[in-house]
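Reviewer 2 asked us to include a model.

Predict the structure of this chain.
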Amino acid sequence: MNKDEMARSAVAGLMTLGLLSAGSALAQDKKDMEQCWGVAKAGQNDCGSNKTAHSCAGQSKKDHDPNDFKAVKTGTCTKMGGSLKQGEMGKMGMEKKS
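Predicted model (structure tokens):
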């Protein structure tokens, strides 16, 4: 193995190690998140239900739809006016209706 091949192998190994570390950090981040229903602005939802005529991120048509969720840090959903239950209007959505 010449120096050029060793350098390429070393770089490839470091890149692989970096990707593995980033992947485990992302998994840890998701573990500390919860689905917060009714807090997403139109087009800013992380996902939704089949009750809203879509099931994909970024496709919500209205603000604070109780059938669309945004992933938030665990323990912050109800503080920000959302609901932990799908279809249930959180405080944020109730204020909007008034």
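The two ends are 73 Å apart (CA to CA). The helical segments are 3-31, 91-97. We have added this to the supplementary material.
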